[in-house]
């Protein structure tokens, strides 16, 4: 026995451990094609979007990794009031909105997948935060604006987001262009390179490409 020894410490109910367990379970869920309309299902929870194609050079380094381009949650209650939302299909509705944004942004929808897991609000929140911190998804961090909802006149008067600058085409108007697309693209490439470099440093194990089911387009 070494001269100095301290047993490992493990708290299975710590928020960190719970978040890691959620993410590990989440990443065992199948990747589902977004080519066609997503069949409607009830419930709220955690979701993420992934690139699985070969035609968009910017996202090509992510095509065979578990790194999502976007991570989010759809809750069953209003975070401000605690009241339950009237929507029976909050997670499905969010994915449906994102599918439309991807297509309007000129991206090939057949090359994108989603992964989803029904969860209580508190656990969906933990999972989303862990995915965002662990992976820093490009559409959550560097190219912000993808997840914003159309807010009528408010959105139309706001400046064009970074995401809309790089992926122009969504059916919304903007008050003006404030971002340089060439600079954004270069920054996005550097961000993705860092993601790939840090891929094996996550606190939870992620399955290999062969270990998860990809329900892609036929």
What does this structure look like?
The protein has 218 residues and is an alpha+beta fold. The protein is built from seven helices and five strands. The protein has helices at 15-26, 90-104, 121-135, 138-141, 153-157, 162-166, 181-197; strands spanning 31-33, 45-51, 70-74, 112-118, 214-215. A five-stranded mixed β-sheet has the order 3-2-4-1-5. The model has no long low-confidence stretch (mean pLDDT 89). Its EC number is 3.1.21.-. It is an enzyme of class 3 (hydrolase). Pfam families: RE_Eco29kI (PF09517). It comes from Streptomyces ossamyceticus.
Uncertain segments are none
In total, how many beta strands?
A: 5
Number of helices: 7
| β-strand amount | 5-15%
What is the chain-wise order of helices and strands? HEEEHEHHHHHE
Q: What number is the mean pLDDT? A: 89
TL;DR?
It is built from 7 helices and 5 strands; from the N terminus they run αβββαβαααααβ.
Topology readout:
Blueprint: H1 15-26, E1 31-33, E2 45-51, E3 70-74, H2 90-104, E4 112-118, H3 121-135, H4 138-141, H5 153-157, H6 162-166, H7 181-197, E5 214-215
Parallel strand pairs: 1-5
Antiparallel strand pairs: 1-4, 2-3, 2-4
Helix pairs in contact: 1-3
Keywords:
single chain; alpha+beta; five-stranded mixed β-sheet; 7 helices; 33% helix; hydrolase; Eco29kI family restriction endonuclease
């Amino acid at each position: 026995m070494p001269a100095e020894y301290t047993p490992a410490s493990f708290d299975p109910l710590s928020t960190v451990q719970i978040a890691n367990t959620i993410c590990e379970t989440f990443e065992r869920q199948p990747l589902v094609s977004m080519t066609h309309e997503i069949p409607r299902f009830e419930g709220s929870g955690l979701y993420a979007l992934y690139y699985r194609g070969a035609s968009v050079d910017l996202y090509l380094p992510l095509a065979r990794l578990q790194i999502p381009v976007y991570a989010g949650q759809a809750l069953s209650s209003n975070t401000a009031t605690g009241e339950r939302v009237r929507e029976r299909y909050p997670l499905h509705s969010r994915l449906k909105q994102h599918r439309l944004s991807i297509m309007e942004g000129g991206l090939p929808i057949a090359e994108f997948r989603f992964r989803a897991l029904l969860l209580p609000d508190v656990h969906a929140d933990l999972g989303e935060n862990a995915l965002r911190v662990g992976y820093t998804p490009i559409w959550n961090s560097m190219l912000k604006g993808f997840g914003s909802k159309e807010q009528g006149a408010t959105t139309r008067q706001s400046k064009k987001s970074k995401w809309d600058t790089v992926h122009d085409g969504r059916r919304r108007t903007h008050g003006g262009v404030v971002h340089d697309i060439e600079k954004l693209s270069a920054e996005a490439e550097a961000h993705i390179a860092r993601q790939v470099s840090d891929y094996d440093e996550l606190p939870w194990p992620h399955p290999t490409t062969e270990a998860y089911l990809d329900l892609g387009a036929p």
